[in-house]
Specification:
Layout (H helix, E strand, L loop, with lengths): L13 H8 L14 E4 L27 E2 L22 E4 L5 E4 L6 E2 L5 H5 L5 H6 L8 H11 L5 H8 L2 H4 L8 H8 L8 E6 L9 E6 L1 H9 L13 E4 L5 E4 L3 E10 L2 E2 L8 E2 L1 E6 L4 H4 L8 E5 L10 H29 L1 E4 L5 E12 L2 H8 L27 H9 L8 H7 L21 H4 L4 H21 L1 H9 L22 H8 L2 H5 L5 H17 L6 H17 L1 H5 L18 H5 L3 H8 L7 H17 L6 H27 L5 H6 L6 H18 L8 H9 L12 E4 L2 E4 L6 E5 H7 L5 H12 L25 E5 L1 E7 L7 E10 L9 E2 L1 E5 L14 E13 L15 E10 L13 E5 L9 E5 L3 E5 L1 E3 L21 E3 L5 H7 L1
Helix pairs in contact: 15-16, 15-17, 19-20, 20-23, 24-25, 25-27
């Protein structure tokens, strides 16, 4: 039974404990001196080195490699203004890098008496029927599978009736024969959080009554907290990793923080016509790990409410907007009240394993675009929602003071005016730049601070700003024709968008296209635009890339600030050259009234408070709109969208939850599989296999059916396979930090060496193979590097005469900041010339030439940039068997690029890129050698230097062959950028 964590009194349900704790005079609510300290980075001094982990303050338990250290403070800290005594409830440990890990042993205590996911299903009124028929209200497993498919297929009632009336369907032993009967049975399935309906009274007339559809916010939080899919994907114990002391805040002893994430944005329901719009409010938990929560297929964001979109009747149109904003805050008050109560008094919640946690629901992030952020912060247009800056201050190179909740509430309290007189009240708000909302929803939410929970959002603030401003500046700097031509001849990258017709005429450009354009913008404008303009554009690019890192250290924060400052140092050149112009007037603008530019000043401070900005991106929530709004709306009869969307979502959730319950009960005879799923002990192989089976079934229900192939896993399986079961050498293998994959069958089989040399235009191929074999000697697997003079003659005799040839190889790496994640897979092409590709297609790569250095941690140190011209494997003479020393490795023929020094730097100061030229021999031929394929480490994007004006004879296929100088484009991929920056 649930027990109060303070007085140890037992109650029938967890909600009873919450009601008991809610009594204001209860002894349990009196805080004592044993309160646990929770670290916050909000007041960390600027000179402190803070390492902010992937998520936020809610991070995994302490790693085992941390060792306890002395708790006595350094004498230099004593008496300092930033020093706070450390409570005995804090545990401090240090790692080998000297970083300090502070944990809180008394935080996130586990109490007995919770309910597992399966136990909650037994509370359903029809659970008695399911003891007899597990699939009730359906007859058997096949009956349920057909029903589940039809209910989640998105078919209309008419289409369902047509399917069920088919003769073939009638021969199936189904328990339902009409769509109405099917949906009626679906209503008997166990439900998730239930929908509610409320008419909202208004002080001013509207065209239609205001209807609010919403769910209990705490029920939604508990549904996520208790979900079995997130069993091993949530963090309960807070800790912070840093190097010096920071300000501490108090939370009740034994409490667990449930970080609330909200998101709202208007989205179109109808596609072509009709103009129907919905305003969904989504909710999620910051406890769910970022890499899980940010995947749309994880269903980590639930639809909490459908916010009304009213039509007020008022003679002044602007006042209608004020009334709409007031109504929005009023509805948020209604929907979020349970979370505010839980933030003040706490709430006992059960996790999927059945543990009971004493939870406090604090608002961590509210993901919105800029106009909605202003509405939530209660400020009017051309005003920053998070600082005191106004439109005239948006171009300042420093951050203005934060707009605190206390300041806004004090300003509202000082307005002596009738709130119901909208016109007069709005006019009175003018001197404070407030929008006329008198009762912000966050006013009574403990610790809710708009300047903190309105976290920076990359999709609307960075990528949209890039398209609306940076691209427009570049267009005016180069001209639309020149800019489009340069984009059209950029060498293609497999898997990344290419722009054969340029970018200036693109329509409906989304976030993905904006990111793809960012990959090339710096190399495209280099040489043509003014130097200061290029520096400004490049500084903003580096600012965006550094800010999108999943792990942010204080060093990265310094780089973020430095990049933004560099932009401000050079931004005047954009106006001086006439590149900043009005969209309609085409006149030069002499100001920087760009709201998104001012919001960039809040990136580094926000990172120091709540962690990586990438976890607050609207990419996930925009994708969730498809699942929770657009898809359900497509199944309606185009009337009463809100009610039908709610019913459709309710059916879909019931089906997924029931499928989960059946999968868990079917995996073991005892209803304790959730206990086994969450257990972290050294069990027997059978128990471990049982847990893996449970996880596999949950992944099959709650994750995408399209899986990213991990060549690391494939290579690991192949390496332990019996020698005769797979062909040798292995087509997929791991080299350093890179997984390399070749197709099973070569593109060309058993081609004579001289024919290969002629087809690939490599006259010294035979001599290069001879030098390779001489370097190998009698011991194979030697490490190869670029030599000097060619020692083998061009007609050297080789122990093999034929080669297998591949036209491409795929390289896969781990994520730079999180080696447990798979990064993007890139294809390196080595295609010979043919009638479609006059010059062939040869891609560049990073190759390891010094085994003392490892990619990507060492950057380009110990590595060479090469042009891969041939991928091959020597073939044993016919009639031979087995593997000998020259046919047990895949080989490549690679030509080297040399890095051209730029004064005292290895990179060009304007673009921040390495300048390359082809390495040449004394004879004038390109320097090329044969290397083992396993020395490749990464794809590299080499782009020609266009100069002042691009040659109109260039194409994307001949530009590399026709240019003497190149850029190593580090912006083509973020992990590559982090590796060499």
């Amino acid at each position: 039974m649930p027990v109060c964590p303070k007085c140890l009194k037992y109650f029938r349900t967890a909600r009873g404990v919450t009601f008991h704790r809610a009594q204001p005079r209860a002894v349990c609510n009196v805080r004592d001196d044993r309160d646990t300290e929770l670290v916050s980075a909000a007041a960390a001094p600027a000179n402190e080195r803070v390492n902010h982990e992937v998520d936020d303050a809610l991070l995994p338990p302490s790693p085992p490699e941390f060792q306890p250290m002395d708790l006595d403070p350094d004498p230099a800290w004593e008496g300092g203004e930033n020093w706070h005594s450390i409570s005995p409830s804090i545990s401090i440990a240090a790692d080998s890098l000297g970083r300090v890990l502070v944990t809180f042993p008394r935080a996130s205590e586990i109490f007995e008496g919770g309910e597992t996911f399966l136990t909650r299903f037994e509370l359903d009124p029809y659970s008695v029927c399911r003891r007899l028929v597990p699939f009730y209200p359906f007859a058997n497993l096949d009956d349920w599978r057909v029903a589940n498919f039809l209910l989640t297929s998105g078919l209309s009632m008419r289409a369902l009736d047509e399917f069920l009336s088919l003769e073939a369907t009638k021969n199936m032993p189904l328990s339902f024969w009409t769509a109405k009967d099917l949906r009626a049975r679906a209503e008997l399935l166990p439900s998730g959080p239930r929908w509610k309906f409320q008419i909202i009274p208004t002080t001013h007339p509207t065209r239609e009554p205001i209807q609010l559809y919403f769910r209990d916010a705490l029920d939604c939080v508990e549904a996520l907290f208790n979900h079995p899919f997130f069993t091993d994907k949530m963090d309960f114990t807070p800790f912070r990793l840093f190097t010096t002391a920071e300000r501490l805040h108090k939370i009740p002893e034994g409490a667990t923080i449930c970080g609330i994430i909200l998101s709202s944005d208007k989205t179109n329901i109808t596609n072509m016509c009709g103009g129907k719009v919905a305003h969904p409010l989504l909710i999620s938990l910051a406890n769910i790990k970022m890499k899980v929560r940010n995947k749309g297929c994880s269903h980590a964001f639930l639809l909490l409410a459908l916010m009304p979109i009213p039509q007020f009747i008022h003679p002044v149109r602007r006042m209608c907007g004020v009334l709409e904003e007031r109504l929005f805050h009023q509805c948020l008050d209604i929907v979020l009240e349970p979370l505010k109560q839980a933030a003040r008094l706490g709430r006992m919640m059960s996790d999927p394993v059945g543990n009971l946690w004493y939870c406090f629901t604090h608002l961590v992030s509210y993901i919105v675009d800029t106009p909605e952020a202003r509405m939530l912060a209660c400020v009017r247009g051309n005003t920053s929602p998070v600082t005191t800056a106004m439109y005239k201050d948006f171009g300042d190179p420093h951050r203005h003071p934060s707009r605190t909740a206390a300041t806004t509430l004090a300003q509202l309290a000082s307005i002596e005016c009738d709130v119901l007189d909208v016109d007069q009240y709005f006019a009175a708000c003018e001197r404070f730049r407030l929008n006329g909302v008198s009762h912000p929803f966050w006013r009574d939410w403990p610790l809710a601070e708009p300047s903190e929970f309105l976290t920076p959002e990359s999709l609307h603030e960075w990528h949209r700003q890039f398209w609306d401003h940076d691209v427009r500046w570049c267009k005016h700097a180069l001209g639309a024709t020149e800019l489009d031509f340069r984009f059209s001849i950029i060498p293609r990258i497999t898997g990344i968008a290419h722009f054969p017709n340029g970018i200036t005429k693109l329509k409906q450009v989304g976030g993905r296209a904006q990111r793809d354009i960012q990959r090339y913008i710096v190399v495209v404008i280099a040489g043509a635009a003014d130097v200061d303009v290029v520096i400004a554009i490049r500084a903003l690019m580096e600012f965006r890339y550094y800010s999108q890192a999943t792990t942010i250290t204080s060093i990265t924060c310094d780089k973020i600030r430095a990049s933004l400052q560099e932009f401000h140092d050079h931004k005047d050149a954009i106006i001086q050259n006439g590149h900043r112009r009005g969209e309609k007037t085409k006149q030069v603008l002499r100001h920087w009234h760009i709201p998104k530019l001012e919001l960039m000043q809040s990136i580094a401070p926000s990172i120091e408070r709540v962690g990586s900005i990438l976890q607050w991106s609207a990419d996930t929530t925009e994708h969730a709109h498809i699942e929770v709004i657009k898809d359900p709306a497509s199944t309606t009869n185009n009337h009463s969208y809100d009610t039908q969307i709610c019913r459709s979502l309710d059916r879909s959730e019931k089906c997924r939850l029931f499928d989960t319950e059946l999968a868990l009960r079917g995996s073991t005879s005892e209803p304790t599989s959730m206990q086994q799923l969450g257990r972290e002990t050294n069990d027997s192989d059978s128990e471990s296999s049982e847990r893996d089976k449970d996880r596999s079934m949950l992944d099959g229900i709650w994750t995408s059916k399209r899986k990213t192939t991990s060549f690391f896993d494939v290579a690991t399986r192949l390496s332990v396979s019996p020698p005769d079961s797979v062909p040798r050498p292995l087509r997929t293998f791991i080299a350093g930090s890179t997984a390399i994959h070749l197709n099973y069958d070569p593109s060309l089989k058993r081609v004579p060496i001289d024919i290969v040399a002629e087809r690939f235009k490599l006259p010294d191929l035979r001599g290069a193979l001879g030098d390779y074999l001489n370097h190998e000697g009698n011991v194979t697997q030697n490490f190869h590097t670029f030599g000097g003079q060619r020692r083998s003659p061009l007609d050297v005799h080789l122990p093999f005469k034929e080669l297998h040839v591949w036209y491409k190889v795929r390289l896969q790496q781990k994520a730079y900041h999180d080696p447990s994640d798979i990064a993007s897979t890139f294809t390196v092409h080595a295609h010979p010339p043919d009638r479609l590709l006059k010059y062939g297609r040869y891609d560049a790569a990073i190759m390891n030439v010094d085994d003392q250095w490892q990619w990507p941690s060492s950057g380009l140190q110990g590595h060479a940039i090469v042009h891969v011209c041939l991928i091959m494997c020597p073939v044993l003479p016919r009639g031979s068997s087995g593997v000998n020393r020259f046919s047990d490795r895949f080989l490549i023929y690679a030509q080297r690029f040399d890095i051209v020094p730029q004064g005292n730097s290895s990179v060009e100061q304007t673009t921040g890129l390495h300048v390359l030229k082809k390495a040449m021999r004394a004879s004038g031929s390109e320097l090329g050698e044969v290397f083992p394929l396993d020395q490749l480490r990464s794809y590299a994007h080499v782009v020609l230097r266009f100069g002042r004006k691009a040659d109109n004879r260039l194409t994307s296929t001949n530009c590399i062959h026709s240019s003497p100088s190149f850029f190593l484009n580090k912006y083509f991929e973020k992990d590559f950028f982090y590796a060499i920056s």
